User: What shape does this take?
Amino acid sequence: MKKLALGLAAAVSLAFAGSATAQTYPTKPVTMIVPFAAGGPTDIIARIVGDHMSKTLGQQVVIENVAGAGGTTGITRALTAAPDGYTIAMGHLGTFSAAPATYPNLKYDPLNGMQPIGLAGGTPILIVARKNLEAADLKAFVAAVKANPDKFNEAHAGLGSVSWTTCTLLKGQLGVPKLNAVAYRGTGPALNDLVSGQIDFMCDQIVSVAEQVKAGTIKAYAIASAQRSPALPDVPTTTEAGLPEYQIEAWNGIAAPKGTPKEVVDRLVDALNKALNDETTKKRLLELGTVIPTAAERQPDGFAALIKRDAAKLDPALKAAPK
Assistant: This one.
């Protein structure tokens, strides 16, 4: 009886502690690690979403940029922090779905070793080229690349980046995996060289390239999604342009260390939901070309399923790609 009483007391104590955590969290600012430099697509979305999450949580969500190794340095730091909800991460397709196939010695497990919070936004991928590239449309571009792959230079923002990941998938589907690729320290420098005509093409998120496409400093062949984007309504989908097999969307989502208490996870999920339901926040994201996640994708289970689905899709091409 004494052991039973002690067991009941312990259970009650744990339940009370969990309830107390739910009621008091957070009592100090929450650090959201962005594993890339300030000003990039992930950083922009993190700041927009984090700004509204701060209002719901009653504590500031502080963005900390920790760049390096295709984003894996920052994600490692976030996911190895104490699982108390005070250190979370805004990662993307590359850091969560592509990283296991890209980095054999990855120090975190995005499929089983972290606590997903939810999807914060989808970012369609565009195939873009220097404005004076001879190929007039996607069919002509594909034909030219297949015929003379050694004459084309691709820009990307580094191993494991979204631009590298999504163009690697494209090159695998076109049968030119060894096409010359030039690595940059980030999307900005790569895009600068595309605009100046020193590089032929790249694949990147609409958030990064929409303004240059609108300005005519680069041209867009297609968007790799099922529908056209309201942000660039004149750009055809890959299906419309003749390459229906190339369908890939980048995205940004929030995760916490494995073992984060459910009550804390629920508070973060609620804050994310309220941010994405806020009309001002939605407007800011939509103007960038971001796709607002569904209610299911904003939940931990829905986000986890997306990570696993895209990992399975990318795994063969990324493992076969020259590193």
In short: The two ends are 64 Å apart (CA to CA). The longest strand covers residues 114-130. Strands lie at 30-34, 61-65, 87-92, 114-130, 154-156, 181-183, 201-205, 218-223, 249-257.
